[in-house]
Design brief:
The chain has 1 helix and 23 strands. With about 300 residues, it is mainly β. The protein has 2 domains: about 190 residues; about 100 residues, Immunoglobulins (Immunoglobulin-like, Sandwich). Strands 5, 6, 7, 8, 11, 14 and 15 form a 7-stranded antiparallel beta sheet that branches. It has a 6-stranded antiparallel beta sheet with strand order 1-2-3-4-10-9, with no helix packed on it. The protein is elongated.
Length: about 300
């Protein structure tokens, strides 16, 4: 992480506590920060934290008095991913006690660090951070998967934004020419860290396509039901699972010739008897994957 003389009043020795927040949409919370503390500093007004059902977290930090990201700006988001002040960074340092991860934005690049017992570093075996991203318009939006923050379900966080930093021409380390640099922390005033609960809807299988082939069963020919399903959390189309096929002609059962995945579709096939013209065919196809189920039924007169 960058070596900067951070303002101790903003980040040092902060007790964990419950911060005031206003609930917005499902899985989204808006936090309001005090404004106008330092006219020279970036001024955080609100922070909106949300997650989707794929477990991707979004931190939207609104800084209207900094419409663009200056090269003199630096941002940190500390995350207490296990909601436990006894783990992570200790009290009395330059980091909030209990922080397990830190996301640092500096010089137009964002990085994820994990507390290793002595500092925030990156090492072999750490989460890949492939989902970490950011954008900036009148403030910064940071996205990251909860799985890369220790599969967090209940976290606490604090944000620090600093301006006026410079870089040593030899070491390229960041520093504050005038200490401390203008900054804003949210929450400020040592009130604690903001809490956020990651809420995921139960995963289901969603039917994306159901296709009888041909559209109408024909006596003496092969008939198939094709079913395509996807996970609700990731949107990934299934390519495996248990396929169950049930078919009936009139009151009698018709055994399926096969029931399996072909590419990204589950396919059930039946051979319609030559003498079944005019009778009613009723069939169903069901996919079971990791305890989740998707099914469709079909009924039509045989041609």
């Amino acid at each position: 992480m960058a070596c900067i003389a951070l303002p101790a009043a903003a980040v040092g020795a902060m007790p964990l506590g419950t911060a005031s927040s206003t609930a917005a949409a499902a899985n989204s919370v808006t936090y309001t920060d005090s404004t106008g503390e330092d006219p020279a500093a970036p001024d955080i007004t609100t922070i909106v934290v949300s997650n989707n059902d794929a477990g991707i977290l979004s931190f939207r930090i609104n800084i209207p008095n900094r419409p663009t990201l200056g090269q003199d700006m630096f941002m940190l988001i500390w995350i207490d991913s296990d909601n436990n002040v006894q783990t992570g960074s200790p009290a009395g340092g330059n980091d909030p006690p209990g922080a397990d991860y830190a996301m640092e934005l500096i010089r137009g690049e964002i990085s994820l660090y994990r507390w290793d017992g002595t500092g925030f570093t990156r090492s072999f075996g750490d989460p890949s951070a492939v989902t970490l991203s950011f954008s900036y318009t009148n403030g910064v939006t940071v996205g990251i998967a909860a799985s890369e923050l220790g599969n967090t379900k209940l976290l606490k966080f604090i944000v620090l934004v600093v301006s006026g930093i410079a870089f040593d021409p030899v070491t390229e380390e960041a520093y504050c020419p005038s200490s401390p640099c203008p900054s804003d922390a949210a929450p400020g005033g040592g009130v604690g860290l903001y809490p956020f609960e990651v809420k995921l809807a139960p995963t289901t299988l969603q039917v994306k396509k159901f296709t009888p082939t041909p559209a109408k069963p024909v006596a003496g020919r092969t008939f198939a039901l094709r079913l395509q399903a996807a996970r609700s959390d990731t949107g990934a189309l299934l390519q495996s699972g248990r396929v169950t096929c049930v078919g009936r002609i009139g009151k009698g059962a018709l055994r399926a010739q096969s029931g399996r995945f072909v590419g990204r579709e589950a396919v059930c096939t039946w051979k319609i008897p030559a003498g079944a013209r005019g009778k009613n065919f009723r069939g169903s196809i069901t996919i079971v994957f990791e305890g989740l189920k998707a099914a469709r039924s079909y009924s039509r007169a045989i041609g």
